[in-house]
Amino acid sequence: MKQQIHNRRFLLLLTILLVATFGMAQTVIVKDSITNEPVPFVSVYFGNDSGGYTDEQGAIAIPSEIEQIRFSHICYESKSIAKVTVDSQTIFLVPKSINLDEVAISARIPKRIKTTEVGLMKAKTQTKHKGANGFEMALFIPYDSTWTETPYIHSILASLDYTTHWLVFTEIKTPIYATLRFDLRQTDAKTGAPKDESLIDGGIILPSGQKLGKDGISLTRPIPFPQTGVFVVVEWITTAQVSESCNLVPSLNMTLDEVDNRTWNKKTFRGMDWMQEQNEPAYQNEEAQVFYKGRTPSAKLGLKISK
Questions:
Q1: How confident is residue 102, by pLDDT bands cut at 50, 70 and 90?
Q2: CA distance 74 to 70
Q3: What is d(CA 233, CA 211) in angstroms, rounded to the nearest whole number?
Q4: Do 126 and 247 meet the contact criterion of CB atoms below 8 Å apart?
Protein backbone atom coordinates (compact mmCIF):
# COMPACT_ATOMS: atom_id res chain seq x y z
CA MET A 1 0.00 0.00 0.00
CA LYS A 2 2.76 2.40 0.95
CA GLN A 3 4.53 1.56 -2.31
CA GLN A 4 1.39 2.44 -4.30
CA ILE A 5 1.07 5.78 -2.52
CA HIS A 6 4.75 6.45 -3.19
CA ASN A 7 4.29 5.61 -6.88
CA ARG A 8 1.27 7.88 -7.17
CA ARG A 9 3.15 10.77 -5.58
CA PHE A 10 6.06 10.19 -7.94
CA LEU A 11 3.76 10.17 -10.98
CA LEU A 12 2.04 13.35 -9.76
CA LEU A 13 5.38 15.09 -9.26
CA LEU A 14 6.56 13.95 -12.70
CA THR A 15 3.36 15.28 -14.29
CA ILE A 16 3.81 18.67 -12.60
CA LEU A 17 7.42 18.86 -13.79
CA LEU A 18 6.43 18.01 -17.37
CA VAL A 19 3.69 20.63 -17.40
CA ALA A 20 6.08 23.22 -16.01
CA THR A 21 8.74 22.29 -18.58
CA PHE A 22 6.44 22.56 -21.59
CA GLY A 23 4.91 25.75 -20.22
CA MET A 24 8.28 27.48 -20.26
CA ALA A 25 9.96 29.18 -23.21
CA GLN A 26 11.95 26.82 -25.40
CA THR A 27 15.37 27.75 -26.77
CA VAL A 28 15.89 27.45 -30.51
CA ILE A 29 19.27 27.59 -32.26
CA VAL A 30 19.36 28.97 -35.82
CA LYS A 31 22.14 27.67 -38.06
CA ASP A 32 23.38 28.02 -41.63
CA SER A 33 22.23 24.96 -43.59
CA ILE A 34 25.56 24.72 -45.44
CA THR A 35 28.20 25.64 -42.87
CA ASN A 36 26.25 24.51 -39.79
CA GLU A 37 27.43 27.72 -38.11
CA PRO A 38 25.06 29.67 -35.81
CA VAL A 39 23.41 32.70 -37.44
CA PRO A 40 23.30 35.76 -35.15
CA PHE A 41 20.69 38.52 -35.27
CA VAL A 42 18.04 36.58 -37.16
CA SER A 43 14.66 38.31 -36.93
CA VAL A 44 12.11 35.95 -35.35
CA TYR A 45 8.48 37.03 -35.64
CA PHE A 46 6.09 35.44 -33.14
CA GLY A 47 2.93 37.06 -34.46
CA ASN A 48 0.63 39.17 -32.25
CA ASP A 49 2.92 42.19 -32.64
CA SER A 50 5.85 40.48 -30.95
CA GLY A 51 9.21 39.00 -31.83
CA GLY A 52 12.92 39.07 -31.14
CA TYR A 53 16.42 38.39 -32.48
CA THR A 54 18.78 35.48 -32.09
CA ASP A 55 21.86 36.29 -30.04
CA GLU A 56 25.49 35.99 -31.19
CA GLN A 57 25.28 32.20 -30.76
CA GLY A 58 22.15 32.01 -32.92
CA ALA A 59 19.91 31.26 -29.91
CA ILE A 60 16.49 32.66 -29.01
CA ALA A 61 13.86 31.71 -26.43
CA ILE A 62 10.45 31.05 -27.99
CA PRO A 63 7.44 31.57 -25.69
CA SER A 64 5.51 28.32 -25.22
CA GLU A 65 2.17 29.79 -26.34
CA ILE A 66 3.45 30.76 -29.80
CA GLU A 67 1.85 28.71 -32.58
CA GLN A 68 3.59 30.08 -35.69
CA ILE A 69 7.15 31.42 -35.95
CA ARG A 70 8.82 33.14 -38.89
CA PHE A 71 12.61 33.38 -39.19
CA SER A 72 14.11 35.97 -41.54
CA HIS A 73 17.55 37.37 -42.32
CA ILE A 74 18.71 39.48 -45.24
CA CYS A 75 21.19 36.77 -46.32
CA TYR A 76 18.86 33.77 -45.98
CA GLU A 77 15.58 32.46 -47.30
CA SER A 78 12.80 33.09 -44.79
CA LYS A 79 11.37 30.09 -42.97
CA SER A 80 8.15 29.53 -41.02
CA ILE A 81 7.42 26.70 -38.60
CA ALA A 82 4.54 25.72 -36.35
CA LYS A 83 4.88 25.45 -32.59
CA VAL A 84 8.37 24.46 -31.45
CA THR A 85 8.85 20.75 -30.74
CA VAL A 86 11.85 18.71 -29.64
CA ASP A 87 12.56 17.96 -33.30
CA SER A 88 12.59 21.64 -34.31
CA GLN A 89 14.89 23.11 -31.68
CA THR A 90 17.56 23.58 -34.33
CA ILE A 91 16.43 25.63 -37.33
CA PHE A 92 18.47 25.59 -40.53
CA LEU A 93 18.26 28.57 -42.88
CA VAL A 94 19.22 28.30 -46.54
CA PRO A 95 21.53 31.06 -47.87
CA LYS A 96 19.99 33.18 -50.61
CA SER A 97 21.20 32.89 -54.17
CA ILE A 98 21.31 36.54 -55.20
CA ASN A 99 21.94 38.02 -58.63
CA LEU A 100 22.87 41.67 -58.21
CA ASP A 101 23.38 44.19 -60.97
CA GLU A 102 26.87 44.00 -62.43
CA VAL A 103 27.75 47.50 -61.28
CA ALA A 104 26.92 46.55 -57.71
CA ILE A 105 29.40 43.67 -57.47
CA SER A 106 32.39 45.02 -59.36
CA ALA A 107 35.68 44.34 -57.58
CA ARG A 108 37.58 47.20 -59.19
CA ILE A 109 39.11 49.51 -56.60
CA PRO A 110 38.91 53.24 -57.37
CA LYS A 111 42.21 55.00 -57.86
CA ARG A 112 41.11 58.29 -56.33
CA ILE A 113 40.23 58.40 -52.67
CA LYS A 114 39.06 61.99 -52.23
CA THR A 115 35.53 61.69 -50.89
CA THR A 116 32.36 63.75 -50.73
CA GLU A 117 29.03 63.23 -48.98
CA VAL A 118 25.59 62.59 -50.45
CA GLY A 119 22.31 62.25 -48.59
CA LEU A 120 20.78 64.35 -45.80
CA MET A 121 23.55 64.52 -43.21
CA LYS A 122 23.91 68.30 -43.56
CA ALA A 123 20.19 69.00 -43.27
CA LYS A 124 18.87 70.73 -40.16
CA THR A 125 17.84 68.42 -37.30
CA GLN A 126 14.24 69.24 -36.38
CA THR A 127 12.93 66.07 -34.74
CA LYS A 128 14.00 62.54 -33.83
CA HIS A 129 12.76 59.05 -34.49
CA LYS A 130 13.05 56.79 -31.48
CA GLY A 131 14.65 53.40 -32.02
CA ALA A 132 12.63 50.23 -31.49
CA ASN A 133 13.32 46.50 -31.65
CA GLY A 134 12.84 45.19 -35.18
CA PHE A 135 12.45 48.68 -36.62
CA GLU A 136 14.17 49.64 -39.87
CA MET A 137 14.48 53.02 -41.55
CA ALA A 138 15.81 53.70 -45.03
CA LEU A 139 16.67 56.71 -47.15
CA PHE A 140 16.78 56.46 -50.94
CA ILE A 141 19.69 58.32 -52.51
CA PRO A 142 19.33 58.68 -56.29
CA TYR A 143 22.13 58.47 -58.83
CA ASP A 144 23.16 61.96 -59.94
CA SER A 145 22.84 62.26 -63.72
CA THR A 146 25.57 64.93 -63.76
CA TRP A 147 28.24 62.47 -62.61
CA THR A 148 30.64 61.83 -65.47
CA GLU A 149 31.97 58.67 -63.83
CA THR A 150 30.35 56.14 -61.55
CA PRO A 151 31.35 57.01 -57.96
CA TYR A 152 32.31 54.43 -55.35
CA ILE A 153 30.63 54.13 -51.96
CA HIS A 154 33.13 54.05 -49.08
CA SER A 155 31.12 54.63 -45.90
CA ILE A 156 27.57 54.75 -44.53
CA LEU A 157 26.69 57.85 -42.52
CA ALA A 158 23.96 58.35 -39.93
CA SER A 159 23.05 61.24 -37.63
CA LEU A 160 22.31 59.53 -34.32
CA ASP A 161 21.31 60.86 -30.90
CA TYR A 162 22.62 58.92 -27.91
CA THR A 163 20.95 61.05 -25.23
CA THR A 164 18.35 59.37 -23.01
CA HIS A 165 16.29 62.23 -21.56
CA TRP A 166 13.50 61.54 -24.07
CA LEU A 167 13.03 57.93 -22.94
CA VAL A 168 9.75 56.94 -21.36
CA PHE A 169 10.59 54.57 -18.51
CA THR A 170 7.57 52.29 -18.57
CA GLU A 171 8.85 48.82 -19.44
CA ILE A 172 12.46 49.47 -18.48
CA LYS A 173 14.23 51.45 -15.76
CA THR A 174 17.53 51.92 -17.56
CA PRO A 175 18.31 52.67 -21.23
CA ILE A 176 18.79 49.74 -23.60
CA TYR A 177 21.45 50.37 -26.23
CA ALA A 178 20.64 48.69 -29.51
CA THR A 179 22.93 46.86 -31.86
CA LEU A 180 22.64 48.56 -35.26
CA ARG A 181 22.80 46.88 -38.63
CA PHE A 182 23.68 49.19 -41.54
CA ASP A 183 23.00 48.03 -45.05
CA LEU A 184 22.77 49.12 -48.67
CA ARG A 185 19.91 47.91 -50.86
CA GLN A 186 18.64 48.47 -54.36
CA THR A 187 15.08 49.44 -55.20
CA ASP A 188 12.30 46.96 -55.81
CA ALA A 189 11.02 47.81 -59.30
CA LYS A 190 7.41 47.00 -58.37
CA THR A 191 7.02 48.64 -54.97
CA GLY A 192 9.79 51.25 -54.90
CA ALA A 193 10.79 49.94 -51.45
CA PRO A 194 14.20 48.52 -50.49
CA LYS A 195 14.82 45.03 -51.88
CA ASP A 196 15.32 42.07 -49.56
CA GLU A 197 18.85 41.72 -50.91
CA SER A 198 21.97 43.24 -49.41
CA LEU A 199 24.65 44.89 -51.55
CA ILE A 200 27.25 44.43 -48.80
CA ASP A 201 26.99 40.80 -47.69
CA GLY A 202 24.22 41.23 -45.17
CA GLY A 203 25.16 44.62 -43.81
CA ILE A 204 27.61 45.85 -41.20
CA ILE A 205 27.00 45.44 -37.47
CA LEU A 206 27.70 48.25 -35.00
CA PRO A 207 27.80 46.55 -31.56
CA SER A 208 25.55 47.69 -28.74
CA GLY A 209 27.01 50.64 -26.85
CA GLN A 210 29.53 51.54 -29.57
CA LYS A 211 28.91 55.03 -30.92
CA LEU A 212 29.00 55.91 -34.58
CA GLY A 213 31.48 58.70 -35.32
CA LYS A 214 31.27 61.47 -37.88
CA ASP A 215 33.15 59.33 -40.41
CA GLY A 216 30.38 56.73 -40.29
CA ILE A 217 30.91 53.03 -40.73
CA SER A 218 33.31 51.94 -43.45
CA LEU A 219 32.51 49.29 -46.03
CA THR A 220 34.83 46.27 -46.17
CA ARG A 221 35.58 47.33 -49.73
CA PRO A 222 34.20 50.22 -51.82
CA ILE A 223 31.35 49.35 -54.20
CA PRO A 224 30.17 51.23 -57.29
CA PHE A 225 27.12 53.45 -56.79
CA PRO A 226 24.17 51.67 -58.50
CA GLN A 227 22.82 53.71 -61.40
CA THR A 228 19.29 52.95 -60.22
CA GLY A 229 20.07 54.62 -56.89
CA VAL A 230 20.59 53.04 -53.49
CA PHE A 231 18.82 52.77 -50.13
CA VAL A 232 20.78 53.39 -46.94
CA VAL A 233 19.18 51.18 -44.27
CA VAL A 234 19.57 51.14 -40.50
CA GLU A 235 18.00 48.45 -38.29
CA TRP A 236 17.64 48.46 -34.48
CA ILE A 237 18.37 45.10 -32.79
CA THR A 238 18.31 43.94 -29.19
CA THR A 239 18.17 40.49 -27.63
CA ALA A 240 16.62 41.97 -24.48
CA GLN A 241 13.07 40.80 -23.74
CA VAL A 242 11.23 43.99 -24.67
CA SER A 243 8.25 44.77 -26.87
CA GLU A 244 8.42 46.49 -30.24
CA SER A 245 7.09 49.69 -28.64
CA CYS A 246 9.96 49.96 -26.14
CA ASN A 247 12.31 52.86 -26.93
CA LEU A 248 15.95 52.00 -27.64
CA VAL A 249 19.11 54.10 -27.79
CA PRO A 250 20.15 55.68 -30.12
CA SER A 251 17.41 57.61 -31.87
CA LEU A 252 17.78 58.81 -35.46
CA ASN A 253 17.83 62.52 -36.19
CA MET A 254 15.29 63.71 -38.77
CA THR A 255 14.75 66.84 -40.85
CA LEU A 256 11.50 68.44 -42.00
CA ASP A 257 12.88 70.54 -44.83
CA GLU A 258 12.81 67.95 -47.63
CA VAL A 259 10.07 68.51 -50.20
CA ASP A 260 10.70 65.19 -51.92
CA ASN A 261 10.54 62.69 -49.05
CA ARG A 262 12.49 59.51 -49.87
CA THR A 263 12.34 57.94 -46.40
CA TRP A 264 10.78 54.53 -45.78
CA ASN A 265 10.27 52.49 -42.59
CA LYS A 266 9.47 48.91 -41.65
CA LYS A 267 8.06 47.45 -38.42
CA THR A 268 8.95 43.77 -38.51
CA PHE A 269 7.40 42.79 -35.18
CA ARG A 270 4.08 44.38 -36.04
CA GLY A 271 3.90 42.24 -39.13
CA MET A 272 4.24 45.32 -41.35
CA ASP A 273 6.29 45.60 -44.53
CA TRP A 274 8.04 48.69 -45.89
CA MET A 275 5.97 51.86 -46.11
CA GLN A 276 6.82 55.39 -47.19
CA GLU A 277 7.29 57.70 -44.24
CA GLN A 278 4.52 60.03 -45.39
CA ASN A 279 2.09 57.10 -45.10
CA GLU A 280 3.00 56.49 -41.47
CA PRO A 281 -0.27 56.57 -39.44
CA ALA A 282 1.44 58.51 -36.65
CA TYR A 283 1.56 61.61 -38.89
CA GLN A 284 -2.07 61.47 -39.97
CA ASN A 285 -3.84 62.76 -36.85
CA GLU A 286 -4.59 66.44 -36.35
CA GLU A 287 -2.15 66.93 -33.47
CA ALA A 288 0.75 65.57 -35.55
CA GLN A 289 -0.24 67.68 -38.54
CA VAL A 290 -0.11 70.81 -36.38
CA PHE A 291 3.22 69.82 -34.81
CA TYR A 292 4.90 69.00 -38.11
CA LYS A 293 3.08 71.76 -40.02
CA GLY A 294 2.03 69.34 -42.72
CA ARG A 295 5.61 68.17 -43.35
CA THR A 296 6.95 64.61 -43.09
CA PRO A 297 10.24 63.85 -41.31
CA SER A 298 13.12 62.62 -43.48
CA ALA A 299 15.92 60.42 -42.14
CA LYS A 300 19.35 62.00 -41.75
CA LEU A 301 21.31 59.23 -43.45
CA GLY A 302 23.99 59.47 -46.10
CA LEU A 303 27.00 58.07 -47.87
CA LYS A 304 30.64 58.98 -48.29
CA ILE A 305 31.57 58.48 -51.93
CA SER A 306 34.62 58.98 -54.15
CA LYS A 307 34.56 60.13 -57.78
A1: very low
A2: 13
A3: 17
A4: no
DSSP secondary structure letter of residue 95: B
- pLDDT at position 15, please? 37
For 213-244, give one letter per residue: b (16+ CB within 10 A) or e: eeebbebeebbbbbeeebbbbbbbbbbeebeb
Arithmetic mean of pLDDT, 185-201 = 95
Residues 280, 265: contact at Cβ < 8 Å? yes
Burial status of residue 21 (CB atoms within 10 A of its CB: 0-12, 13-18, 19 or more)? exposed
The larger pLDDT score, comparing residue 306 to residue 167, is at 306
Distance CA 145, CA 207 (A): 36
Residue-level pLDDT at 9: 47
In this structure, which amino acid lies at residue 65?
A: E
CB 203 within 8 A of CB 181: yes
Each residue of 274-293: pLDDT tens digit? 999 999 888 878 888 888 88
Q: How far apart are CA 298 and CA 278, in angstroms?
A: 9
Count CB-CB contacts under 10 A for residue 252.
Answer: 24
The model's pTM is 0.85
SS3 111: coil
Q: With bands split at pLDDT 50, 70 and 90, how would you rate the model's confidence at 90?
A: very high
Choose among 3, 6, 303: nearest CA to 156.
303
Do the beta carbons of residue 217 and residue 155 sit within 8 Å? yes
CB count in 10 Å sphere of residue 151: 20
